[in-house]
Write a structure and sequence with these properties.
The protein is α+β, with helices and mostly antiparallel strands and 167 residues long. It is built from 4 helices and 6 strands.
Length: 167
């Protein structure tokens, strides 16, 4: 009987970890859409040495650099919407990985909330891979990689240069 209770407790712990991890990943993409780039907010999502690797291969390291980089990059958009699905969470002790599918819609400044023309937006679909670590403050992201698989709309050249040295 105690073995069965122990097994149920382990499964329950796994599902609690999975829910908390999923929430942290979702919180990051919500921060993008709400432009919540301040260090204190991102510090609750990322470890101090966390890295975000953009689709163009550049890396932002630490909550301050991540916030500043996103603030600069997202200034040209009127609005964005990031939709995640299929969170595949693997927990190994105090470390975890997540693979999720991402659709990201970006409306260029001046689009007036309309995606009626390809010049008003660009949308990208891809996969995000996230590494997390359990800390005293809960699960936090240590690395997030965004691999774009497809794009539609306009403005890809401008997006590809953002964050690259010399851009």
């Amino acid at each position: 009987m105690s073995e069965r209770i122990s097994d149920r407790t382990a499964r329950l712990d796994h599902w609690i970890d999975t829910a908390e991890i999923t929430q942290v990943v979702n919180r990051y993409f919500r921060a993008l859409d709400e432009r919540a780039f301040d260090v204190s907010h991102l510090g609750r999502i990322f470890t101090a040495e966390a890295g975000v690797i953009r689709p163009n291969g550049t890396q932002l390291t630490g909550p301050a650099a991540i916030g500043n980089g996103h603030r600069e990059s997202f200034a040209r958009f009127e609005s964005t919407q990031h939709l995640l699905t299929g969170h595949d969470v693997i927990v190994a002790g105090d470390d975890a990985t997540v693979r999720a599918n991402l659709i990201a819609m970006h409306l260029w400044d001046g689009a007036r909330k309309s995606a009626g023309s390809a010049e008003d937006y660009f949308v990208a679909g891809g996969v995000v891979t996230v590494r997390l670590q359990r800390t005293h403050q809960g699960w936090k992201i240590t690395e997030l990689v965004n691999d774009v698989i497809w794009r539609a709309g306009s403005g890809f050249a401008a997006m590809a240069t953002t964050g690259r040295p010399g851009s």
